[in-house]
Amino acid sequence: MTTLAQSETQLVDRLDEIGAKIQDVREATANVIFGQDRVIDLALITLLSGGHALLIGVPGLAKTSLVETLGGVLGLDNKRIQFTPDLMPSDIVGSEVLEEETGGRRNFRFIKGPIFTQLLMADEINRASPKTQSALLQAMQEHHVTVAGVRHDVPHPFHVLATQNPLEQEGTYPLPEAQLDRFLLQIDVSYPDADAERRMLFATTGVEERELKTILSADELMMAQRLVRQLPVGDQVVDAILQLVRSARPGAGNDQELDDMIAWGPGPRASQALMLAVRAKAMMDGRLAPSVDDVIDLAEPVLKHRMALTFAARAEGVEMSDMMARLIEPLR
């Protein structure tokens, strides 16, 4: 057997092993988070891609429970920060304190903040000031923080699942476009259906306590992230990604009517995010390579927070979902 064939066989074997565990993770999470299979899948795609996600939904839809559950089944240390207008960057990153040692010597000691964890929930991130938001978003991009000129690396893996309430905008600081671009996916969390809510009532109001078992360790998650990057991507899928992302930019020239409705569009980071996301979805579904259908399925969560409609388009009642449907149509 040639070296190439051996490496391909090893890749398939590792994909099968990791894929089976990911299926167990999905099932275990779905047994706690009812009626949110799509949200669970997108959150897992985010983690397998090595990225961060922005979850948008009204209160009470189990966003906090989702982060805690994923932390448990994936064996990740997880913490939660409740963002408020008076939250300071040092409350997230940490700060230096002056300590006096024996003999009268004084030294500064760095006390780590809650950002030093593997899975961080940034609850209602848009309630904090831009300065505080930036402290978190810098760590998301660079995987380290700098305090008093000293670099402190965050743990590996490091993922942020931030939440926003779409209803109450009073007293909030919307994330700037450049910061929104740091999130791999925007995940819309909607209400569960009637059957799921019925099961939820019985499962969460009884005396039985659910125990979470660790299915995938942090090291195995990082190995899965490396495997995601090794999955082959066909030229047809690459062309679909490029066609989709480039057509979402104003001035692309393909459709003048679309150009007039798009204020600004996604940059190259969107193409990278979509490339990783379709690979992660293929792995999660037990496939060896992504398809154009994966590009269509993940186009909206990857792109919609990276583009905006013009005032004229919004005045005419055009929704972002309508825009995404038009962009996707040529790929079908």
UniProtKB/TrEMBL annotation:
InterPro entries: AAA+_ATPase, ATPase_AAA-3, CbbQ/NirQ/NorQ/GpvN, ChlI/MoxR_AAA_lid, P-loop_NTPase. Keywords: ATP-binding, Nucleotide-binding. Residues 49-193 form the AAA+ ATPase domain. Pfam families: AAA_3, AAA_lid_2. GO terms for molecular function: ATP binding; ATP hydrolysis activity. Belongs to the MoxR family. This is AAA family ATPase. It comes from Methyloceanibacter superfactus.
